[in-house]
Amino acid sequence: MSRHAGVRRLIMLRHGQTEWNAADRMQGQMDTDLSELGRRQAKDAARELLSHEAIAILSSDLRRAYDTATALADHTSHEVVRDPRLRETSLGEWEGLTHIEVDAGYPGARQTWRLDPTFTPPGGESKIEVGARALPVVRELFVERTDWPGRTIILVAHGGLIAALTAALLDLPEKNWPVLGGLANTSWVQLSSHGPSIEQPGWRLDVWNAAAKVAPDVL
């Protein structure tokens, strides 16, 4: 028996580029579409990830993530399961603004937001809240997918969500959350659970920002 037979692998893939990404515009939960480049990126990522032979593909219900997930699912027998708990961070009043506009209207706030996971954009949610909303998705999979040990599940979501969920799964102290920087479009994270139970899952970070250049620390 392989020494990895009992290990649950979790891959979290960020969606492809949107026109808003290209323009440094804050998306949050605005339902934007992939750009032409983003669609090509999704197809490229699908080819890279097919070798992992995932047993399930889940996605944020926002179009940019769902369409990225569909590019992967098109090469498998799986249907994409949409889950709104995997949506990006709500950025409240910042959504639709460029980085320059946010910095002009809320001086210093974006830097604070990067460094303090408890900081909440006006009308939005903190990174701590995002991690707390997404964590039950993985815990439910842990219980329900008895075929997960020794295999892989893929979540397709957003940079901020993936960083927050990773920090929550690893149970990082709040002050250490900023060590997980930005993710490039269609880069991915891999974690593996080596523990005996849902109470002691033993999550480890195997890969961060794979198959991509280092991205700016943005959503």
From TrEMBL:
Cell membrane keyword on record: no
Recorded GO CC terms: cytosol
Keyword Transport annotated: no
Positions of substrate binding: R14, H15, G16, Q17, T18, E19, W20, N21, R64
Record key words, sorted: Hydrolase
Gene Ontology biological process terms, A to Z: negative regulation of glycolytic process; regulation of pentose-phosphate shunt
Pfam family, one: His_Phos_1
Active site positions: H15, E88
GO molecular function, one term: fructose-2,6-bisphosphate 2-phosphatase activity
Top-level division of the source organism's lineage: Bacteria
Record protein name field: Glucosyl-3-phosphoglycerate phosphatase (Pgm family)
Species the sequence originates in: Nocardia pseudobrasiliensis
